[in-house]
Design brief:
2 copies of one chain form a homodimer. By secondary structure, the first copy, chain A, is of the alpha/beta class. Chain A has helices at residues 21-29, 52-56, 69-72, 122-127, 134-153, 157-164, 173-193, 219-231, 324-342, 378-391, 395-411, 425-434; strands spanning 13-17, 36-41, 45-47, 66-68, 79-83, 86-90, 95-98, 101-104, 107-110, 114-116, 165-169, 203-207, 234-237, 242-245, 249-252, 258-259, 262-265, 269-271, 282-283, 287-289, 302-304, 309-310, 357-362, 365-370, 373-377.
Chain lengths: 435, 435
């Protein structure tokens, strides 16, 4: 009975899978152009992933960092949104199997982003918490707050300590930001809201496999971020592999085991590929090999952009970094190229303009690399906030996030530490299945 | 292993069940007084119920109308919060059985509020949507948005129409506000965001069992609210009982059946009583009979306030209305009386000061009764907003709600129409069980 109910037109049809940074940029660039654009996403909103950690730590409402996809494209006649889960691509028939029926395409773009990579360690996958979507960030928030409530009533010292130890695995921007936010939560919230707890028992660890946190940034940024974290009381452990985690204790390759019921996994991502992409087009980290026009290896009508794409170039022999600017720029270039391809003109090769990288550690503490220009501290923190505010989709979101940040800055509070839905392993499994 | 871990003191211990309006007012009034107060709630936050309908219809984030209970009482040494589900009261042992272990009390106050009353109609309970908690309001929001997405792809006309018909049962303030908000959603959002839908097929019905909506307000308010709703396109059907609802079609006693997949149940509440209260103390609507000091019939150390209490007086032979001001005033009076009872002084009888009633229908449209002073329209709407903003707990919440309202007023938009967690009957049952 269900059918996508897509209007028939004479225009070629471009289907985009995923309403992340790349997908929405591509669609936006094609408004009022001679192509019918169908955007598919399993959610009805775009998620601003860089601020998920603030949702997880009670600094922001989930609604503030998400934006309804239908609203982005309102009034644009050639762009349609459908909420759907894509099950399989059948390239030989130019067809997608989806949860709302089959959809035909003339051109297909995978902008499906990335999922958390547990590197095949199923025990860790089961017991640790990922943070790649709003439901996952909310689960994380609920788990942290539930464990604090549990710690208040736990008599057994070892068990209580495990509830109060927070281990963040992965020293990239997400891990650094999460560890910093937890340190602030400890300092400004736990000390006053949980008088029953011995605040000295609350410990935050950041575990990194390589020699440095923020390995993709400058040595200066790396060093300063570590200093910031340590000033805030985070124990940074580098050169550590996680050997195992059984839900109670995490074993490291080169340090003492840590008792912890809160292990947050930010150690890696892998491309969110879809059934039907041939194996030979898939490379390291589950990314899809594309040429310099973002065309998937072996196809003329299939494209991939953003996190899920691996475009191996001279400057980026392992593919581009999985960050928003790459996805946005690829979306923009591909929009022009699709129009050229339709007109049978030659497409233009993608060239990434790296504008730099930044990460925030906490109040007045951030690190910014803009090419050769590098700075850290309070000015970097303001730059970080400004860039993130400006990149957020929607004026209401900008406004509400700004109000929350100003309020938090002066009050030292985090307003939204509510367990809206209680977390259990059970419910997480369902979310993951249903997301 | 788990234990409430409550500190031993020489003070008498007062346990409060429920962090609603009554419970938090009672606890606040007892700060720094010679009594140990233990506040229990199944959630870690206080919910501002009067604005739940805005969460359900995408106008506000859930975090804006909730406030962490621990934060309300931070720094108050004689008040402790524990997140717990109360399973049973054992009055003869002055003990509570809870999900975190047994808790003894010297005095116990039930401030557990009310649940949705389906009047024993289990089929309606299964298929219609209640809205008494934040998880329920979010389920409602998700269901509405999912049904709209479903309508977009539904080919069968009858099925599509059922997805686009909204039936609100119950013409009290909640039902009126919900129906009004849906009418605004239709007018300002659906028309632009869902170009695929025939907006004329979207219909909103408000069903009321008695002769008038807002029956507890003045005839003037009642009449004007009806006019407002009809101007906004809501079909108001009074003198209608709901005979049945099978998930597809709702049968009414005196009107044609309505096809609808969206039946929102706001037709009644019943006291949220707890096992262990003797039957003879329970009266109509599951409320607990109390004397003029809020003491439960037959006990000297058990009290009930707010929605769950029925204090039958000359002016209120059926008990006081289930509204926030009653709960707050009873909490305040009981605080004084508890201190008197501890000192073996005579308590003072409760006397309700009715400050009036109000309801909002939509933009620039509200009705207010303040004793003999009655007004409707834009000024009433501003009064309604001001009173609700001022009653919201927490400065951040006031600020964020204010910003959202100002923004919505000028943009005609509702920012938060996101399906954060998808709704299914299955997940609802779990929430209800777990709430």
């Amino acid at each position: 009975m269900k059918e996508p109910q897509l209007p028939e037109t004479n225009l070629p049809r471009l289907v985009i899978i995923g309403g992340g940074f790349g997908g929405i940029e591509l669609a936006k660039q094609l408004k009022n152009r001679p192509v019918q654009v169908i955007l598919l996403d399993r959610h009805n909103y775009h998620t601003f992933q860089p601020l998920l950690y603030q949702v997880a730590t009670g600094g922001l409402e989930p609604d503030s960092i998400a934006f309804p996809l239908r609203r982005i494209f309102k009034g644009q006649k050639n762009i349609l949104f459908r909420m759907a889960e894509v099950e399989e691509i059948i390239p030989e028939h130019q067809t997608l199997k989806t949860s709302i029926g089959n959809i035909n395409y003339d051109y297909l773009v995978l902008a499906s982003g990335s999922d958390t990579n547990f590197f095949g360690q199923s025990e860790i996958e089961h017991f640790s918490m990922p943070m790649k979507s709003i439901p996952e960030a909310l689960n994380l928030r609920s788990m942290i707050l539930q464990n604090l409530e549990e710690a208040v009533i736990e008599k057994d010292k070892e068990k209580r300590v495990a509830l109060l130890h927070f281990v963040v695995v992965g020293g990239g921007p997400t891990g650094v930001e999460l560890a910093g936010a937890l340190a602030e939560l400890k300092k400004h919230i736990l000390a006053t809201d949980y008088p029953e707890l011995d605040i000295k028992q609350v410990k935050i660890y950041l575990i990194e496999g390589s020699a440095n946190i923020l390995g993709s940034m400058s040595a200066q940024a790396t060093q300063k971020a570590k200093t910031f974290l340590e000033e805030m009381g985070v124990q940074v452990l580098c050169n550590q592999r996680v050997l195992s985690y059984d839900g109670e204790q995490i074993l490291l390759s080169d340090a003492r085991p840590i008792l912890s019921k809160n292990v947050l996994w930010a150690a890696g991502v892998k491309g969110a590929i879809i059934k039907g992409i041939p194996k030979e087009a898939i490379t390291r980290g589950n990314r899809i090999l594309v040429d310099e026009y973002n065309r998937i290896k072996g196809f003329s009508d299939l494209f991939a952009i953003g996190d899920v794409a691996a475009m191996l170039t001279e400057n980026y022999p392992n593919g581009h970094p999985g960050v928003a600017p790459v996805a946005i720029q690829q979306g923009r270039t591909l929009a022009k190229n699709i129009l050229k391809i339709i007109k049978k003109e030659a497409p233009k090769a993608f060239c990434y303009r790296d504008k730099g990288a930044m990460a925030t550690v906490g109040r007045n503490r951030a690190v910014v690399d803009l090419g050769k220009i590098r700075f850290q501290g309070i000015f970097a923190w303001f730059v970080w906030m400004f860039v993130h505010l400006m990149t957020l989709v929607g004026f209401r979101n900008k406004l509400v996030v700004f109000v929350n940040w100003v309020w938090s800055y002066f009050s030292y509070d985090r307003g939204t530490r509510l367990i809206i839905r209680s977390f259990s392993r059970q419910s997480m499994t369902e979310d993951t299945a249903a997301k």
